[in-house]
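Subject: design request, 376 residues
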C-alpha cells in the first residue's frame, strides 16, 4: 500500500511570476503547514541554459514541501532536459504551464496559453515530462483562448491530453485568455469567470482530478467550492496580498488540523533568521527589498500598516540586514497586532459555486471525441 506523504492538495497557492519565489514560500510555510506551494513558472530554457547555476532557480528548503515546480516551454528536448535537471531537487509534482497569456510567453514565446490550441503537443510535452521524473505531473490551463472558448473545445483539450499522456490532474483557471490588446493583469479580470465549465469537467471526466482556480479569496469560499465537489482549490492574488488572513486559516478550516498558533511577531522572528542567511547569496542579490517584499501584505488592513510601508520605503535605502530593517520599522505596528494569533476568518461569498452548478453546459459527448480522433 502506498502511503501519501502529504495531505491532498485541497488548497494550493498559485504559481505567480516574481511573487511566489523562495522568500514568499518561506513566509507562507511559516503560516500554513499544509498548503501546497507552487513555484513561479520557470522556462525550460532557463533551466537548461543556467545548468551551472541551478540552485538559484530550483533549490528550496525542505520545509517548503509539499511544493510543485511549474515549467513552461515549447521545445520537447529542452522540456525533457529541464525535467531531468530539476529531478534531483525533489519537487512533489511537476506542472506544465498552459495558461500564461503574457505577450512574451504566449506571443513571441509561443507557449503558455497558446498551447491550449495544440493539445497534441501538450500531450507530447506531458509524456516527456513524465518520462523524466518519478513524481506526478499536471497541467495548469484556462478554459479557452480567444474565440476557442466553447465547453466542447475545452473538453477536447482535456480529453486529448489525458488520453495521450499520463496527465491525471488539471488546474483550471476558470476564465479564458485573450491574446491581443489586453495586459496579463487585465487577462485576470476582464474575461468572465465560468465556474460552470469547471464543475462540468468534474462531472464529465470522473477519472481525472481537477483543481479550481480564479477569483477565490477566502477560506469560506474555498470550503464552499469543495462542498460543491471541487477536488482542490488554488488561490493566487489573495494569498499574496493578504497571506495572514487566508493562509492562517488553511490548516484548521480546510485540513481540520491544529493551526500553527504563531503570532506575526514569531513569524517575523523566524523569517528574520532566514532572510539574513540568504541576503547577498548571489552577489548583490537578493537584497533587503527583495527579501522583505512578500511581507508587505502581512499587516493588510491592520492599524499601522500604511505607516509601516512608508517607513519600509525609507529603510530600503540604507538597511543592510533584515534585523536592522525590522528594528527600524516594526515599531509602527501595535503590539496587539504583532502578538495576537490569527483572528476569525473573513467570510466570503459562498453561493457562487451553487449558482454555477445550475448553469452546467451540456454533457461532453463521446461521439464528438471519436470524430475528432479520426484525424489522428
Ligand atoms: C503576478 C502574477 C504572476 C502570475 N504568474 C503565473 C505563472 O507564473 N504561472 C501561472 O500558471 N499562472 C500565473 N499567474 C496566474 C495565477 O496562477 C492564477 O491563475 C491567477 O492569478 C488567478 O487566480 P486568483 O484569482 O486566485 O489570483 C500569475 C498571476 C499573478 C497575479
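Subject: RE: design request

Done. Sequence follows.
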Amino acid at each position: 500500500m502506498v502511503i501519501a506523504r502529504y495531505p491532498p492538495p485541497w488548497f494550493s497557492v498559485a504559481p505567480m511570476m516574481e511573487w511566489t519565489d523562495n522568500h514568499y514560500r518561506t513566509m507562507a510555510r511559516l503560516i500554513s503547514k499544509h498548503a501546497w506551494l507552487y513555484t513561479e513558472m520557470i522556462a525550460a530554457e532557463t533551466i537548461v541554459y543556467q545548468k551551472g547555476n541551478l540552485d538559484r532557480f530550483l533549490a528550496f528548503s525542505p520545509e517548503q514541501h509539499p511544493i510543485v515546480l511549474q515549467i513552461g516551454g515549447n521545445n520537447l528536448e529542452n522540456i525533457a532536459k529541464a525535467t531531468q535537471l530539476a529531478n534531483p531537487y525533489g519537487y512533489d509534482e511537476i506542472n506544465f504551464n498552459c495558461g500564461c497569456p503574457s505577450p512574451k510567453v504566449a506571443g513571441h514565446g509561443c507557449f503558455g496559453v497558446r498551447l491550449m490550441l495544440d493539445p497534441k503537443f501538450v500531450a507530447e510535452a506531458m509524456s516527456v515530462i513524465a518520462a523524466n521524473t518519478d513524481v506526478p505531473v499536471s497541467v495548469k490551463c484556462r478554459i479557452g483562448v480567444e474565440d476557442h472558448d466553447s465547453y466542447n473545445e475545452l473538453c477536447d483539450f482535456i480529453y486529448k491530453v489525458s488520453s495521450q499522456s499520463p496527465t491525471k490532474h488539471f488546474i483550471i483557471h476558470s476564465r479564458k485568455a485573450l491574446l491581443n490588446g489586453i495586459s496579463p493583469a487585465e487577462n485576470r479580470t476582464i474575461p468572465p469567470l465560468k465556474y460552470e465549465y469547471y464543475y462540468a469537467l468534474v462531472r464529465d471526466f470522473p477519472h481525472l482530478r481537477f483543481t479550481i482556480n480564479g477569483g477565490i479569496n477566502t477560506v469560506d469560499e474555498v470550503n464552499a467550492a469543495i462542498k460543491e465537489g471541487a477536488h482542490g482549490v488554488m488561490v493566487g492574488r489573495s494569498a499574496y496580498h493578504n497571506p495572514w488572513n487566508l493562509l492562517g486559516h488553511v490548516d484548521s478550516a480546510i485540513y481540520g488540523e491544529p493551526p500553527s498558533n504563531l503570532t506575526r511577531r514569531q513569524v517575523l522572528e523566524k523569517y528574520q533568521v532566514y532572510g539574513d542567511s540568504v541576503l547577498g547569496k548571489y552577489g548583490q542579490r537578493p537584497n533587503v527589498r527583495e527579501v522583505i517584499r512578500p511581507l508587505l501584505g502581512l499587516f493588510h488592513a491592520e492599524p499601522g500598516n500604511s505607516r509601516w510601508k512608508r517607513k519600509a520605503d525609507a529603510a530600503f535605502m540604507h538597511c543592510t540586514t533584515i534585523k536592522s530593517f525590522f528594528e527600524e520599522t516594526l515599531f509602527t505596528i501595535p503590539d496587539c497586532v504583532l502578538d495576537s494569533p490569527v483572528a476569525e476568518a473573513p467570510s466570503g461569498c459562498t453561493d457562487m459555486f451553487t449558482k454555477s452548478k445550475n448553469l452546467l453546459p451540456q454533457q461532453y459527448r463521446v461521439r464528438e471525441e471519436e470524430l475528432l480522433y479520426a484525424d489522428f
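The radius of gyration is 21 Å.
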